[in-house]
Design goal:
- This protein is α/β, with parallel strands linked by helices and 335 residues long.
- It has two domains: 6-156, Spo0b-associated Gtp-binding Protein, Chain: A; 162-334, P-loop containing nucleotide triphosphate hydrolases (Rossmann fold, 3-Layer(aba) Sandwich), CATH 3.40.50.
- It has five helices and 14 strands.
- It has helices at residues 172-179, 229-235, 252-269, 290-303, 319-334, and strands at residues 6-12, 45-50, 64-66, 86-91, 94-98, 103-108, 114-118, 149-156, 162-165, 197-204, 207-213, 240-246, 277-283, 307-310.
- The strands form three sheets. Strands 10-11-9-12-13-14 form a six-stranded mixed β-sheet, sandwiched between helices.
- Helix 3 links the parallel strand 12 and strand 13 (277-283).
């Protein structure tokens, strides 16, 4: 299934039923009065978060959603039946916008959280409602109100504790694969990852966190180049961001330049996100000598404000201890 993280849909609530015009007629009630009941209310349109969903792909072809309308009022002062609410399930982490006025309606980031996006119309009044001392036989009723209708934009942002910031082919997928039960696609070409992949990391026996492999960043992403915002928006949910760089055939200067470029793109998208970047992971150390490893670590630790960690995701070198440190760091954030 393709990963879809932004869609436009239209929703319409149900209309209210009309009020009833009716008079009682019976042998024992020769002067029977009005008995028309009110119409039923239209059904609401409700969006509800479902943690078992991970894509908005359903809405790629299904664009219009309509709740049922209320029924007309009945005689003998019986109300018409209410229309049924329409509940639309969306992935956890979906943000809902009113597309017409470009305003956010809700952010469904809690399990089973729901929001009414279109309210059903109220039912109309039957003629019994208008009976008075001066009008014993009213023939007046009211029409049911129309249900609300909205054009919505749904935007999915991945919910993860830790996000990976790196260029294509830097080893993000390999790291998620090494430390969790997730199995993202891995290959030696750019943009292997075309959709976010979540994995649960058990860093100690009874504690875990969620790590996200997100499409690789290229220069100009903050302005929409490459995967653009489709990549960067997902990092806004994370509590920590790990910067990951492939060290194969790179000197210290090259690594520093790449690190600055990544942070620059992140800052241009949202300057607040740079505060979440506290770690620099030097990946693929199995492809360089021990001497080169020591040189990189020594020089970068002197020149970087970030915590420098040498790993090989493919060979699982240093990954277990790294995940423990990250887990403990998340615990401190929660305190």
């Amino acid at each position: 299934m393709n990963f879809i993280d932004e869609v436009l849909i239209k929703v319409s609530a149900g209309d209210g039923g009309n009020g009833c015009l009716s008079f009682r007629r019976a042998k024992n009630l020769p002067k029977g009065g009005p008995d028309g009941g009110k119409g039923g209310s239209g059904g609401d349109v409700i969006l509800k978060a479902n943690p078992n969903l991970n894509t908005l792909a359903r809405f790629r072809y299904e664009k219009y959603f309509q709740a049922t309308s209320g029924k007309k009022g009945l005689s003998m002062n019986k109300s018409g039946a209410d229309g049924e609410d329409l509940i639309i399930e969306v992935p956890l982490g979906t943000i809902i916008y009113d597309e017409t006025i470009k305003e956010k309606i809700a952010d469904l980031d809690s399990d089973q959280e729901e929001v009414v996006v279109a309210k059903g119309g109220k039912g109309g009044l039957g003629n019994l409602r208008f009976k008075s001392s001066t009008n014993r036989s009213p023939r007046r009723t009211t029409q049911g109100e129309g249900g609300g209708s909205l054009d919505l934009k749904l935007e999915l942002r991945v919910l993860a504790d830790v996000g990976l910031l790196g260029k294509p082919n830097s080893g993000k997928s390999s790291l998620v694969n090494a430390v969790s039960s997730a199995h993202p696609k891995i290959a030696d070409y750019e943009f292997t990852t075309l959709k976010p992949s979540l994995g649960v990391v058990d860093y100690i026996s009874d504690k875990s966190f969620v790590i996200s492999d997100i499409p690789g960043l290229i220069s100009g992403a903050s302005k929409g180049v490459g995967l653009g915002f489709q990549f960067l928006r997902h990092l806004s949910r994370t509590r920590l961001i790990l910067q990951i760089i492939d060290v194969e055939n790179k000197e210290v200067k090259g690594i520093e330049t790449e690190s600055k470029e990544l942070l620059k793109e992140l800052a241009e998208f949202d300057s607040n996100l740079t505060q979440k970047v506290q770690w620099l992971l030097l990946n693929k150390i199995d492809l360089i000598s021990k001497e080169q490893q020591m040189k990189l670590e020594r020089r970068l630790k002197k020149q970087q404000d970030l915590k420098v960690y040498l790993i090989s995701a493919k060979q699982r070198l240093g990954t277990e201890s790294l995940m423990k440190e990250i887990g403990f760091a998340l615990e401190k954030i929660d305190q």
